[in-house]
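pls design
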């Protein structure tokens, strides 16, 4: 069942039924002010850090209910309704929520009154705009009241929901006839405040939640709204809000627009106050003035649209498969950008109060947006590398506001260092710029410890080389990519973290997955070294790679697939000898991508096993059979009920590895088959089962053993976005940035006979036509001339080129 449709011409997903199975959300913002917006106007805003600078409140444990957001209440002769349906839930005569790239437009109508609400965060300013237009489509004059309301968060989102003995004393506001200022804690150590402003003078306001709602009422039956009035309440402690009320008369056919603006302002310490207790509003006035008319708002909106048109022109495909095209051109790239901004911190499923930026997550995310924003990627690489230690190990996470490693979690995830090589090598391939290797980058953010970035890569590899187990395979540490494979944590205490309570330092538990990574990225680093003339060092690395490759062939192969790991007692994990968890997906993908045992047919066999044992209707499950019982020696992986999360769901992040691996061994049909199985656009028709947004990847889809088989969870912030982007563009379309130029090596399925791709690469536009005649041969013409090999050497390209590839 569908709840909307894709409007590809506008780059929008249009939700036409507000009863979506879960809130279907969107993101706004790019450089500091960020907002989440659901299809019922729910969501929250923050400045840079969703934990430390939360601007509006989110109510936790609140999905699917989704209460709290920007609420516009219309009271039309006793019929009270909201353009986003919630919170009042009055049935609307028509409803559309158009989620676009960085904005949403709500179009609703009730009793002949139309409301259009345009919401976005402008490119250059720290604010969210909500432009609301009411049109009277009836033949009678309408007298209505409009209340526009948001609820402030008391900045620190964790304190805000826990420390009530303090919180309920600190809320402070200032109000004038267009603006409510949230100045909580500004009198002491904060140099920032927020405001909710309108470009038209209000007819009344409230800034105290309890007054606005009325005793024991909720957002559904707010007293102020029901009585078409405002109490002009000034919050003092308790829960400060911002509500503006308007009495509006609309003649037949008349329309009226009001611009609401949620803004954030910082003042230098010496300019904080105008006079005692009165905040300095100079900067707020400037910001308000910038959006005080419909014309100004529409201009900013156009700039936002242009930015996206520009960004997306970097890679654009037109094939004979609409669903593939819309994912590659629009939604997958968009999700990659959102993931760049948010990492895993703020969604409806990540509360924004916990995880900051993950080392491994951020490195992998880069793979998905490097082609869009190479400059920002370089900065991000530096931030990430700066939390690494000199021995190559690294903090697992950092906070975006401070950029310091997160000491509560520490390090010890032994896959982490290698992801840095994945990110840096991809950066060089995309830009051709090796100077990044010289960027002075500190270790653990210590001043004076700066070394060229290349030394960080050396340290990464060296860490693995010096941390191997009894079989010559890399030690796993607290966990590798699979956070829940905790082979050195023997946890019996409820609530204890499986990752940080490593209490059984065996020095033995090994990961075949990290072995695959080491071989793949070790070879990559060796190539980089060779390219910059360090031949001897390159050869040394290849020797190390060979050792791990041999160890994997010897001890990491189970007959029909790669083993997953050796536990603390050197017992196999992910082997036919095990009762449960006989096969895991991760090493099948990575060891095949690394071509380990290629001559022996390992990859092909492993992928056959993946198809036979792990593949379900919605993709490839992470392991099989699911663990029926908790295994203290395996950790969190066996803690989940069967079919969920790491215990046997389709953990979407690793599915593109299987797509890529299939292209590596030449299984083009199977690669595309796996791609389609969990591609959201292909699941739109079964949204009532899938439940999450049909335009966005989710982290997991419940596996065959789960009660809710096929139900997706944790949409938006997942490494699935970047890896799928990589798989679709570089493996299936085969348009691969390479050190010396652009490689074109398509692995299209038979159902895509033709694809035209525009790709801007290092400033040059490549118009690429791929004709898939499934001949099994390969021919490339560049500007009409046949050239040898699959790489178009960049040094020979000066201007836009036309490329034809026949396969
Ligand atoms: C989550 C984590 C990621 C990890 C994955 C598998 O997505 O963010 O770092 O690799 O789970 O456990
Ligand atoms: C990953 C896993 C999750 C686990 C967490 C621990 O996000 O997906 O299941 O609890 O890591 O950090």
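designed seq:
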């Amino acid at each position: 069942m569908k709840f909307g449709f894709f409007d590809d011409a506008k780059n929008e997903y249009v939700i036409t039924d507000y009863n979506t199975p879960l809130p279907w959300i969107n993101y706004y913002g790019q450089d500091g002010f960020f907002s989440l917006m659901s299809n019922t106007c729910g969501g929250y805003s923050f400045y840079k850090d969703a934990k430390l600078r939360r601007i509006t409140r989110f109510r936790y444990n609140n999905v699917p209910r989704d209460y709290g957001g920007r609420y516009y209440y219309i009271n039309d002769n006793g019929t009270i309704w909201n353009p986003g349906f919630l919170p009042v839930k009055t049935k609307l005569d028509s409803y559309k929520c158009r989620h676009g790239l960085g904005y949403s437009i709500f179009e609703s109508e009730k009793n002949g009154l139309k409301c259009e609400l345009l919401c976005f965060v402008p490119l250059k300013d720290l604010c969210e705009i909500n432009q609301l237009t009411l049109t009277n489509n009836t033949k009678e004059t309408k007298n209505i009241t409009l209340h526009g309301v948001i609820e402030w968060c008391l900045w620190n989102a964790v304190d805000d929901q826990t420390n009530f003995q303090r919180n309920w004393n600190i809320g402070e506001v200032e109000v004038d006839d267009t603006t409510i200022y949230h100045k909580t804690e500004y009198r002491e150590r904060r140099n920032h405040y927020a405001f909710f402003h309108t470009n038209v003078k209000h007819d009344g306001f409230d800034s105290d939640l309890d007054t606005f709602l009325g005793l024991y009422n909720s957002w559904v039956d707010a007293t102020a709204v029901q009585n078409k009035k405002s109490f002009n309440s000034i919050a003092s402690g308790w829960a400060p809000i911002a509500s503006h009320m308007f009495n509006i008369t609309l003649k037949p056919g008349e329309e009226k627009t009001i611009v609401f603006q949620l803004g954030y302002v910082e003042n230098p310490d010496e300019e904080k106050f105008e006079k005692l207790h009165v905040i300095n509003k100079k900067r707020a006035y400037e910001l308000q003035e910038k959006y005080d008319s419909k014309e100004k708002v529409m201009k900013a909106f156009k700039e936002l649209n242009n930015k996206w048109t520009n960004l997306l022109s970097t890679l654009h495909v037109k094939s004979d498969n609409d669903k593939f095209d819309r994912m590659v051109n629009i939604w997958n790239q968009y999700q990659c950008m959102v993931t760049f901004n948010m990492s895993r911190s703020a969604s409806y499923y990540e509360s924004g109060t916990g995880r900051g930026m993950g080392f491994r997550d951020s490195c992998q995310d880069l793979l998905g947006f490097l082609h869009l924003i190479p400059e920002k990627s370089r900065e991000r690489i530096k931030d990430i590398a700066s939390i690494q230690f000199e021995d190559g190990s690294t903090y697992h996470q950092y906070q975006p506001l401070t950029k310091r490693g997160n000491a509560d979690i520490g390090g010890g995830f032994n896959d982490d260092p290698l992801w840095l090589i994945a990110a840096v090598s991809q950066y060089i391939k995309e830009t051709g710029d090796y100077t990044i290797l010289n960027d002075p980058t500190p270790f653990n953010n210590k001043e004076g410890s700066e070394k060229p970035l290349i030394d960080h890569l050396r340290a990464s590899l060296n860490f693995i080389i010096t941390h191997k187990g009894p079989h010559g395979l890399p030690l796993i540490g607290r966990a590798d990519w699979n956070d829940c494979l905790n082979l050195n944590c023997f946890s019996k205490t409820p609530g204890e973290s499986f990752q940080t309570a490593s209490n059984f330092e065996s020095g033995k538990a090994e990961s075949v997955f990290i072995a695959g990574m080491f071989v793949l990225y070790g070879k990559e680093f060796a190539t980089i070294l060779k390219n910059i003339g360090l031949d001897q060092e390159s050869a040394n690395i290849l020797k190390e790679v060979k050792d791990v490759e041999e160890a994997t062939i010897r001890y990491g192969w189970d007959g029909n697939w790669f083993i997953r790991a050796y536990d603390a007692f050197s017992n196999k994990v992910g082997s036919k000898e095990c009762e449960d968890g006989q096969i895991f997906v991760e090493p099948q993908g990575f060891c095949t991508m690394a071509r380990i045992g290629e001559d022996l047919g390992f990859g092909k066999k492993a992928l056959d096993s993946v198809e036979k044992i792990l593949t379900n209707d919605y993709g490839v499950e992470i392991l099989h059979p699911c663990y029926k019982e908790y295994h203290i020696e395996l950790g969190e992986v066996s803690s989940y009920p069967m079919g969920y999360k790491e215990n046997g769901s389709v953990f979407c992040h690793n599915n593109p590895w299987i797509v890529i691996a299939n292209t590596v061994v030449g299984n083009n049909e199977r690669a595309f088959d796996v791609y389609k199985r969990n591609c959201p656009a292909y699941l739109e028709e079964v949204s009532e089962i899938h439940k999450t947004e049909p335009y966005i990847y989710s982290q997991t889809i419940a596996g065959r053993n789960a009660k809710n088989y096929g139900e997706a969870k944790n949409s938006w912030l997942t490494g699935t976005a970047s890896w799928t982007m990589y798989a679709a563009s570089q493996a299936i379309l085969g348009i691969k940035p390479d050190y010396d130029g652009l490689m074109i090596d398509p692995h299209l399925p038979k159902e895509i006979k033709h694809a035209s791709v525009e790709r801007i690469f290092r400033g040059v536009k490549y118009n690429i036509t791929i004709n898939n005649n499934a001949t099994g041969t390969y021919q490339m013409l560049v500007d009409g001339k046949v050239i040898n090999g699959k790489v178009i050497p960049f040094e020979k390209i000066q201007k836009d080129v036309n490329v034809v590839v026949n396969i």
